[in-house]
Amino acid sequence: MGKTRPIDTAPMDGSKVTVLWIDPGGQESRSIAQYRSLERLKPTGGDWDETDAGWWAFVDSDTQKRVEPHSWKPAGEEDDE
Asked: Lower Cβ count inside 10 Å, N or C end of the chain?
């Protein structure tokens, strides 16, 4: 039940999912993230552009970062490992 899926099959409706991505040091990271489209960002105010759209994850308790995940699974789903 905890198998990962290709990122192109992930929900892009703002749902929170667990994503796996490679950090700048080459380490695989796992974070809760959500896809934020430009259409969803603009109503919040600010100066958003197409480079802001994408997967956003909390990398610590206070910091969000745009990441390029390679796979995903539903948030809270247990690992098979």
From this structure: C
Q: Indicate the DSSP class of residue 7.
A: G
pTM of the model: 0.82
**Tokens read off for 58:** 């909390």
- pLDDT tens across 34-47, in order? 999 999 888 888 88
Cβ contact 55:33 at 8 Å: yes
Phi, psi of 17, rounded to the nearest 5 degrees: -135, 165
13: which 2 tokens? 């409706």
Q: Looking at per-residue confidence, does 15 or 77 come out higher?
A: 15
Phi then psi dihedrals of residue 40, to 5 deg: -85, -25
